[in-house]
Amino acid sequence: MLQIINLAHNNFSGEIPRRSLTTWWSMMANKDDSLVEVKFLEFSLEAGRDGIGFSIEDGITVTSKGSEMDLRKILSIFTLIDFSCNNFSGTEEIGEFQSLYVLNLSGNALTGEIPSSFGNMRVLESLDLSQNKLSGQIPPQLAKLTFPSFLNLSNNQLVGRIPTSTQFST
């Protein structure tokens, strides 16, 4: 039930461990839900309940959207992976995290193309793949992302057009 995984600024190298990625269930969409929605934040008017459909956990400091933030309280639905500033390679399985809000893989040794599966991350708000050795085009599947407020793909070897979508144009 890990929600926040922060391995930033270490000397880790090699492929991101695939076995770990396939067991982090809280970052994957609930198989019973056809779409991850903000319905978790709705309030219930049921008698005898406090009506809150989520819980709040203790705080932590994270890097998101290019800035360090102190999160004093964490919603139980908030998920974050920060593997920045290591020497990791391999990212394909991360595209399965349909309930992931923040992904920071900047400053690693990622090569090849950005996986098209990243377009499956339906609630992703922040994606930082900067300062790697990624090549090829930005996959058009990234245009399916509907919530990104921060996208950093700088300092790579990407070519071609930026995909068109409502979010990318703003």
Please give a structural write-up.
This protein is mainly beta. The protein has a single domain, classed as Leucine-rich repeat, LRR (right-handed beta-alpha superhelix), CATH 3.80.10. It is built from two helices and 14 strands, in the order ββαββββββββββββα. It has helices spanning 18-21, 166-169; strands spanning 4-6, 13-15, 56-57, 60-64, 67-71, 74-75, 80-82, 87-89, 102-104, 111-112, 126-128, 133-136, 150-152, 157-158. It has a five-stranded parallel sheet with strand order 1-7-9-11-13, with no helix packed on it. A three-stranded parallel sheet has the order 10-12-14, with no helix packed on it. A two-stranded parallel ribbon has the order 2-8. Strand 4 and strand 5 form a beta hairpin. The longest helix is centred in the first third of the chain and has 4 residues, at 18-21. It is globular, with a radius of gyration of 17 Å. The N and C termini lie far apart (34 Å). Residues 34-52 have low confidence and may be disordered.
